[in-house]
Amino acid sequence: MMMTAALCHRYGPPESLRLAEVPQPRPRRGEVLIRVQAAGVTSGDARIRGAQVPAGMGPLIRLAFGLRGPRRPVLGREFAGVIEAHAPDQSEALAASLPPGTAVFGITPGMRMGAHAEYLCLPADGLLLPRPADMSIETAAGFFFGGLTAADFLLDQCALQPRERVLVVGATGAVGTAAVQIARAHGAQVTALASAGNLELARQLGAETLLDYRHDRLEGQWDVILDIPGVLANARQHLARGGRLGLVTATLGQTLRANLRPGGPVRAGVISETPAAMARLLGLYHAGAYRPLIGATLPFNRIQEAHALASSGHKRGNVVVVMDPAAGAALAAPVRATS
User: Fold this and answer.
1) Tens digits of per-residue pLDDT, 29-41?
2) How far lies 159's CA from each of 38, 136, 167, 223, in Å?
3) Which of 63, 166, 201, 258 sits most deeply, having the most CB atoms within 10 A of its CB?
4) Is the domain defined by 2-143+292-329 classed in CATH 3.90.180.10?
């Protein structure tokens, strides 16, 4: 059987992606076949597609993913879908835990990727959860990338405490919108640094102080600074005593220095993607403390446009593609980044 997938055989611009018919994957023992209904298109996907990464990371990316193009040409990690089938030799207990027809959402493990396709095979006991009945497929498809990153940096790496002062740089992208919500729900005082057109959104998400990155002078100190795009000059000068700086997009040098000083002020570690981390984020959702912002929803056949938006550096929240052509037909209006 065949399926439609978005393929990236060479690193390059969004136009380097193409839709093609490829064989549908077959689940091996311990795996489930998932019919993908929607998938997130993240800044991480865009960086892999374009091999555009922070300074010093280029050789590592090519070593990990492929020299001239991704070894696994189907990109995408976060998704929402439905269990279609189990491996023929699946254990009864595992098959009963996620029977065919179960609505699920999750992320693909490690560098496996593969979510930008109509079907996907994943371990049944991996990074996969039943989807709440009140959650749309678009919300589910954009749930984990920004939320897991924000929660890991704020709560784990930076050990955010209630009533601490937090500055979120890049507060209205996928990670930023999650960070503002999670920090606010944790009892922090949140300052959002974003473009003027997005400041009202940051306020609605819970930021108390709003700063236009183009025109407002950065003054004061914060207990935690979360620099998502890695653009804040002299960030450490704005740390209070005992303050922590979380660099979500860190250069190789910054990452090495942070890991050589594990108790220092700079945090630039790899985030934890585990069932426990996913369950914590889902708990925040049920508590009303986190809702992924879906800024743009496009049909799957416009995935090049979705990648362009994810690469822009000015998107609001998450970008999602939906597989169902009927749903996509109603989403054909042009979508532009907000600068």
Assistant:
1) 899 999 999 999 9
2) 33, 31, 14, 10
3) 166
4) yes
